[in-house]
Amino acid sequence: MAKSHRRRRAARSMGKHSVKGLSSSNRRSSLAMLEEDEGDQFDWLSNLPDDVLLNIVERLDTADATRTSILSKRWKQIPTMLSKILIMVGPTDNEQERSDDDVARATATMLGATRSLLEHRSTSPYTIHQLCMQFFLGDGAIRIGRASANAIATHKVGVAEFTILTQKEGTRCSHDDRLSYGMKLNSLINDSPDAFSCLTRLKLENLSLGESDFPKILRLCKRLVFLHLDNCGMEFQSLLEVEHQRLCELEIFRNRFERVDLNWLPELRTLTFASWMSVDDPLSFGYVPLLHTVSIRNPAISSQKMLKLSEFLGKATVSNLTLGFEKEKIWVTPEDPRELSQVFSKLRHMNLAAISNECDLTWTMFVLHGAPSLEELCIRVCDCLGIWDNDRRKKIGYSEERKDVGAKWEASDFKHHNLSVLRIFGFQSEDKFVDYARAVMEAAVNLKDIYLHEKPACKVQCAYIGRPSDRYPRSTMDKNLVRSSLCMRRRPLLRLHFPL
Fold this sequence. Notes:
The protein is α/β, with parallel strands linked by helices.
């Protein structure tokens, strides 16, 4: 009778909790409940088949999954059975401050987790389907690299990812710091080449390497499909040539190369390229037949040249293009549609982002005129000041002229038959915005939807944070005035939206 009562109690307890979706506190209480059940004569959960038990445990994060090893002898083997191992310490972005104590604690945690999850599973027959490691570059990195290499050598690893952090965040890294971190990365690679040869994803930051080092990394990492470089360059600002058989996605932020040449990337599909120092073309496109999504952003300084997209994009024919101006000068030159016919032949979605509010919008019509297959056009206007201190602006080299001084476009009478959606972020009830929307309506004869969005929330450092967009039409009367200004009655099938 007592035995039957215990079984019913265990069944009620199990039906009351779910491993998936629990908060950390609930997970702890759940684990404690399981530990209490250890004393029962029949442990329902521990007697589940291995694959079912593992499926349940892997719904926890790696740290909680490891803690289940204390519950019983059966559960002690759980860490050696996990098919997904994510050991990640440190900040999530390159701007977050990092103290020496934070780095030391994170490294100690990483070494302990590596020892528990990797070094102790050398005899485990279970495959690792996903191995993600985020750690700081330093003395502990060598041991982490060796443990990863051993795990990769003894287990078939499906997806392997390294995110390698530096002790200082990007804004505090000097040229000497980047050189030092570059040498430490080379030491790590030379010590554990097998670990890098099996990587499918690699993220690096704040490094300066020798001219031959980046090509060596690309040759070593034969399985690489994703590469992220932030604040990286070479000892001397020079050319980075990228060639890789499998690379599908490339992200380069705060680029310190003189130019990046995408020479041969037959599988590349997505490119993000943000901020460059070169005064000439910072990027060139070679053999990239599958490239379809490109995002290019730069807060241009006065000495940087205006780019002609027909030359800049070369033979690349993308379908989704984002150009970000970061509230500074417009760095593209409006071109004749005949010059853009090749590079814009497959363009379906265009996003012109972070346009300073002082700029006119007429120049953007060259995109519509040059991209006959365009289906959606998105304009994002920002009234933030960005860097507003005059002395600091001069020191950086920002232009003192109007930010659209080089973006001139003469309106012409043309019709576009494929554009169906126009989005304007940062819309204000002002002539500039209304006239622009009306011009697009006149050209795009099959336009179906216009979305007029309020300005998105500012970043923390924005000088205008907390200031509402006082000319955005919120009331019914203001919205009706906009509808009247756009002559919406003449286009009964066209829908006008004011998203919240």
